[in-house]
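dumping this here before i forget
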Amino acid sequence: MINVKAIVYDRYGSPDVLRNEEVETPAPGDRDVLVHVHATSVTPTDAIFRSGRVVSARMFTGPLRPRRRTLGGEISGQVVAVGKGVTKFKVGDRVFADTGSALGAHAEYVRISEDGALAIAPAGLDHRETVAVLDGMLTALPFLRDGARLREGQEILINGASGTVGAAAVQLAKHHVGARVTGVCSTAKREMVESLGADEVIDYAKADFTRGGRTYDVIFDAAGKSSFSRCRRALRPGGIYLTTTPSLTIFLRSLWTRGFGGKRAAIMFTGLRPDGDKATDLRLLAELAEAKTIRPVIDGVYPLAEAAEAHRRVDSGRKQGCVLLTTEQNGVPDPTAEGH
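structure:
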């Protein structure tokens, strides 16, 4: 085995804390596969973990310094080695995966259990498109299906419809579920949200959707910029408000509205779901992507070594869709080759 490249950080801060460093190639265990990562995403969660500014996030990443030196959770790549007990995958398989709490995706090679959140990649998409389909969809899908229990013909408003999770939610709600979708975004991103299938788009700079008199079965705050208190008047009886942003307020509202009142508030921690559930959703997303029910939305692609620039783009708040890292221009060495 030889050393390969990974993006590492040893302290919290700006994107400048990220370094492109040689690390030891992960060695697959008996039930593991080794994946050559062709593309991976840089998400707002990665930026939060890197910055260390969110105190609650440090409960996961480490109170004083990062416990895991390499960020990233979503990959698309090719299996280059398998453990002796692996039966579900073989060398050469194109796969996509979520590494979960292990992180480590911002690297040339990643080790993942065959029983992890791992599946055969959708046919007809390249690695960049594949990881872009994964980014956001694996969050939006359980929010809509399990949290909102969204049904055909219902009306949903998606706040932050141009972000990664919001754009995924627009597509799933419209094309997979068959709901009527209203998206909320800026003027500059209106056209993109309409192209994803939104029936109506509200420019948040020109109108306050909570005061327009319209009501919805579901309000999904994918941007975390509103609140249940503000949105309650825009919910129909029995409607539900969901947010991706944790806070003490939403925890309390979720508990209270579960037993009282006809309108509910809820939050979900989709990243903490069992790997088996995620793997099932990956297979569903592959089917939807192959059927062109959903499509990737890519803001920009950066070489792995330019991870800091990718983080700056995420930090800017101006991205439309996914920000990706790729190793495809790196001339990545094969750590399984003879002599290494």
